[in-house]
Fold this protein.
Amino acid sequence: MPLIDPFQRTIDYLRVSVTDRCNFRCVYCMPEEGSPVAPKEELLSADEFVRIVRIAVEAGIRKVRLTGGEPLVRKDLVQIVRGIASLPGITDLSLTTNGYLLTEQAPALAAAGLTRINVSVDTLRPDRFKAIARRGEMASVMEGIEAARAAGIGPIKINCVAMKGVNDDEAADFAAWTFREEVHVRFIEIMPIKWNLDETTGFDPFSAHGGNGLIQLKQTSGSMLSDNEMRRMFISAADLKAIIEAAHSPLLPAEIATNGPARTYRLAGAKGTIGFISQISSDLCENCNRIRLTSDGFLRPCLMSDGELDIRTALRSGASDEDLAGLIHHVVDHKPERHYLAEGQKVTGRGMSQIGG
Ligand code: SAM
Ligand code: SF4
């Protein structure tokens, strides 16, 4: 029996945040000092994740993506992957990572059953990488992508959060990458998660402009981008598409296996594709097929609405599989029709790294 929500959408995709910890501090995701994290004992164990996913799959979930925080910082990630990959009924298991620890882990993840991967790369320039991620090294991420490819994980998708004045001048470079290699670049519109955070940090990336007129992100900021900063950095998928077409050639509609809402194109002669996830500028809610499980055991019906249901307490109080399946159905039954950002709704409860982006 498929899982159907009140708006007749089939819910067959579960995004699982395996940790709220991260070794990066991307300016649009968390403060320099890190987001508050749940006590270790509140994070679900590998066995708990696998049990919930098994019950979800029995209820109708078919595709699972592991995310975080940074999933590769979890020591038992391979165990989680192996447990989920071996569940009958799973048709797709993928992972979203910042790629920093991928070189050492790709072979074991592939052996455990991971077939697809998304690596987040917001810039192809090492100096900007430092300003955006505020930790790690770009070279390690690039090596990680090659290691994943060598381990047989594919297709490899690249998640790039587009920011006006920060990396929009690299849109054509990202597009050029698809000529050289079979990478599938997906530009993501910057999202208003925690947009109402601290407006008084004094962090103003617009205060200094480089010779090319671009915004210089300060590396020493103590916080993350604020509401206004993110709003000013917003660039729509349509504008990015126009930049790429002006630099290259018309983007041709393309097909690639995806669970997601990306609209996908290819430049003539390119090995890879270019996608746009325009959850802000266009209404993707109509075709939403997903629910989320946070690392501390809460089920969320919508990324951009604060509602969530505690499943950990039931899980740790002897709930039966039927009880837990009932909670999954309850969340699907309460999936909102859409987000209400345009009406002023704000996502304030958790940050992106805590929900699992
Ligand atoms: N740490 C992993 C990574 O960065 O790929 C997985 C978790 S991260 C929260 C998942 C995705 O969410 C990344 O591609 C990241 O760029 C994206 N993301 C985080 N905050 C965002 C925001 N405010 N708007 C749009 N995308 C965001
Ligand atoms: Fe970490 Fe991913 Fe958030 Fe960057 S986007 S801080 S890598 S969780």
